[in-house]
Amino acid sequence: MELTVVMPCLNEAETVETCVRKALGFMAEQGIEGEVVIADNGSTDGSQQLARDAGARVVHVDQKGYGNALMGGIRAARGRYVIMGDADDSYDFTALMPFVEELRGGADLVMGNRFRGGIAPGAMPPLHRYLGNPVLSFIGRLFFPSAIRDFHCGLRGFRRDSILNLGLQTGGMEFASEMVVKSTIQGLDVREVPTTLSPDGRSRPPHLRSWRDGWRHLRFLLLYSPRWLFFIPGLVLMALGLTVGTALTFGPVYIGKLAFDVDTLVGASAAVVIGFQAVLFALFTKVYAAEEGFLPEDRRIRRLVDVVTLERGLIAGGLLALAGLAGMVASLAHWQVRNFGELIPAESLRLVVPSATALVISFQTIFAALFISILGIRRTKETPADVAASAAEEAAEAVRMARPAAAQHEDAL
Asked: Across the chain, what does the average pLDDT equal?
């Protein structure tokens, strides 16, 4: 079978029959061998029977959520290609040929673009049209090397095996972003075609919740991009803290009538420590995600881990600790000059704060080197070749054990 059209369904009695008939009519008109699968997520309004009467196959998905329903339908699909779309009659299931042609041409994922194809009046709330979708799609393109302009279009087609191999896991509306992100970082052939969006045919409010689901999309994009979640903010904080801290270590800085002194130096120290910790978290996340298969292995991170060995990390941390201790000794000498009496904060903190910062970062460096070494311990994984070799050895052993028994039987005869 060439094509399966999958529609998630939760109480879509008003529109599901129309959508099924349109999709089946399209396949009949184009001579495509295919089916329509309704992934029902617990409808209580009779949507299941209406879909069957229209010619669809209904599969029940117990786990609630948009992503869970779709994955249930995709797993049940019999077609080599799958086109997914909402069962609310907002997408035109009679105009799926551009998706089919791109899939036949070798695409792994074909996204619809509603902004290029046309959005009918009233089909998309202004908040989604002018803020939500454009902003989240821009963030997706910024975080990942994707050219997709409409990350959240619900009408999309793909090779079933390619998408199943991605191991998609999210169960909610962020499933739409996960599919695009993972397809992109795994190097699949992702294309985009114009499609239209019409007002849905339901009298009830949609399942989508603008702010809740928008945050879930944004959260997913951040969690799958350690560079933007940890590394870049951390690097900016470190650079800012080091610049300001270095300047204030030698004395107060005046900008017009504003005077920046040791209080600002403490803040700069905190920025350095927080920024350094964020950069380390980016490294931890990358190494862990690559080892566990959540993200593809980054060759730059692998080279960095190979260069920054445990021993080198311990040496770097030790040198920073020595510098911090040296600063602490200098601060004690300064206190001794004052006969261990009351100190002037503007003088003493210029020694204590950088020294304490160096000590904190030294221990962070040592602990990070130890932790990365633990993450880098590769588990022994049984490969298909290992399985085949083990099976061959077991078969040979079985034959060897069977020969004496067979020989004894022949002697008895």
From this structure: 86
